[in-house]
Predict the structure.
Amino acid sequence: MLAMLSFLVVVQILAIVFMPSIIATDERLFEDPESTTNPISYVLLILGFTLFLLMAIKLKKRWILTVFILASVAASIFYILSAFLSPFISILLTSAMLLLLHLYPEWYIIDIVGIFICAGISTIFGVSMTTLPVILLLIILAVYDAISVYKTRHMVTLAEGVLNVKAPLLFVVPKNRDYSFRMDQISISGSQEKPREAFFLGLGDAIIPTILVISANWSLSAPSQQSLGMTLPAFGAMLGTYLGFLALMIISHEKPQAGLPFLNSGALLGFFVACALAGIKPF
């Protein structure tokens, strides 16, 4: 639990560090950061991505799943690196990371790359939307996550498919030091004969609440925590995320759980409380 929590903390701190460089690029994903239609575009993107992966799993086209995910990861890594480095260096580093992921997808490699991707993507989306569309996004995705895990269960199917092609879309925390993610054939639906040897957390569970942290940090005129370099609402969203995570861990009990209802609710609660304390309107 502490390891998973530390991933969330590192992702959000790293996203705060990334924010000035991402903002300096003047590249935004949405033309109007205040538009409430932005969350709809984001959700449609997620639905399309999910549908494609589920079709590849159903058709048992493992190579399509692997190629599509690695290509998406490579594009994300390059986009993030290019905010700090020249295109040539970015291409070299992206190629090296992609090669490492393909040839040696051990759990610690997956986790390191996952932290970098989460921090970068959440920063890119966070600086592209003000707080109102981000709040709507968190509410919509919390509901969607609950439905996809508890009702349709297609997110469980997707998670198993991603895990078994060793794709870097989840954090992995082994239960013992001898564990090898590369060698593990994983089932998270509860049908496995032996207990799972690792805990898993989707990268989206780290990315989505962090979008609110970044959005609050650049779009709101609020008192800053001088030692931390962030606004009070952003700091509140961070603390709320961690409280939501602890609530998730308390009820988890080794069964697949929808993380976003807990994490997003915590982030939103912390954000609104911090806005009240700072004496500002959140939107």
Notes: The chain has ten helices and four strands.
